[in-house]
User: Fold Carboxynorspermidine decarboxylase from Alkalibacter rhizosphaerae.
Amino acid sequence: MTIDFQKVPTPCYVVDEELIKRNLEILRSVQDRTGCSILLALKGFSMHALFPLIGEYLKGITSSSLFEARLGFEKMGKEVHAYAPAFVEEDFDELLGYVDHLVFNSFAQWTKYKEKVNSLTDKKVECGIRVNPQYSEIATPIYNPCYINSRLGVTLENFREDLLDGLDGLHFHTLCEQNSDTLERTIQVVDEKFGPYLKNMKWLNFGGGHHITRDDYDVEALVRSIEFMRDKYDLQIYLEPGEAIALNTGYLVGSVLDIVENGMEIAIMDTSAACHMPDVLEMPYRPNIIGSGQPGEYAYTYRLGGNTCLAGDIIGDYSFKEPLKPGDKLVFCDMAHYTMVKNNMFNGVNLPSIALHSKERGLEILRTFGFEDYAGRLS
Ligand SMILES: *Cc1c(COP(=O)(O)O)cnc(C)c1O
Assistant:
């Protein structure tokens, strides 16, 4: 069943449940073939209305804060893992109530919290340390955890063999939207540098950034990488992708509010790059719009701008077969991940509603936002 975008009140994120299921099936097949555990990284996608569904396929979630851990615990109720650059002392006792795995970013953090973890009587929380293998193939520094002087993970030079007692696993996260050839090369480096310490570990977490559900992703090389580490050191392997779960599963529908002219035609939208799709500015990238072309490809070219006062709130330049006019709806593609988890109410611009489209129930608007949400986070 196709989605009738004309019926969607704008702005609105629309996630297609069938497309989520398609991704989850691919991920489940990797679990089934290798025995690995795949977790949803809430950082990339936290649409909790779908957590029960996601929990039918994946083993749980991973979080990087108290709130993410609690959301995963309450809304999915399967495994909850947590890693943070540093854990906040006031949050830690509550966090322990939610998690099964904790990954520390430094040996100082591990030393600081070790006693607390070990003194738990009602459950066992397995602990690991994040390492920085100082190998990555990411061109954008802001997304590169191995960039020079990175704060994320312990380098081999700073690794403390003397403090490993009580640790069950290692974790690395060095990929971003990458295929499995990068993973294969990364695994080699991790093995060379940290292999000696993996011998006594129970698990190894490969982090996120695996673009497993992308059309050209080489699942066979992923399976080989998992099997290699699994068998060489007798490890349980975890993967914690965010983006791969929600890749190409959702849209952001916006409407044209006005057309202005300044050297070219500029359409002002009721949605915003700065507020609703911040990665468009941060990465930066140009999202696809259904029925549009590159500038000049079709007869009518427009620059699309957001409805904030930020001069740079520009989504990109696009061409269309027909002229745009106020009221026209435009559908931005691949807007499920790193959008609703990152959006903001800068300039008092309201947030897009969140909708789900499913085969059984059609389009459902799950959440709308209003003045209370805006005022409620200020004082
Ligand atoms: C961001 C992040 C993830 C998820 O990354 P994706 O690119 O969304 O797959 C997983 N683990 C850690 C530690 C992260 O920082």
